Amino acid sequence: MEEYKRTVLYVEDNQLNMALMHHIFKRNLPSILLLEAETAELGLSMAREVLPDLIILDIGLPGLNGYEALEILQQDEATCHIPVLGTSAFAQLSDIEKAKNRGFAAYITKPFQVKAFTETVKRLLDSGL
């Protein structure tokens, strides 16, 4: 059985993006356990239960969107310390600024540049935000 050093929760409703993320973690971040949730509601529940080291949160989720989920995470004493990496296909400068102003620790646009994404994940895990 593998021993993981860190845990990351990925909240994403698109199965292709989820499969890509599993591939990226297996190849580039093998010591990190990747957990998944298909909705913000499930992600919030898992975040409270597991207390991952990092949450990767899609902005365009059905139901609660990423901004609403981030606000709930920030207001919860159990999860407010967990850095959250926002992801979205929205790549305008205004989208990036909005995400940073709302409190995301970082924001990566889709499609991902794998090297930049991997470096961002490592930086957020190492920063201990």
Automatic annotation (TrEMBL):
Domain called Response regulatory: residue spans: 7-125
PROSITE patterns listed in its UniProt record: RESPONSE_REGULATORY
Keywords: Phosphoprotein
Modified residues (4-aspartylphosphate): D58
Origin: domain of life: Bacteria
Pfam families: Response_reg (PF00072)
Entry annotated with the keyword NAD: no
InterPro entries per UniProt: Bact_response_regulator, CheY-like_superfamily, Sig_transdc_resp-reg_receiver
Gene3D superfamilies for the chain: 3.40.50.2300
PANTHER family given in the database record: RESPONSE REGULATORY DOMAIN-CONTAINING PROTEIN (PTHR44591:SF3), STRESS RESPONSE REGULATOR PROTEIN 1 (PTHR44591)
Annotated protein name in UniProt: Response regulator
Annotated source species: Paenibacillus phytohabitans
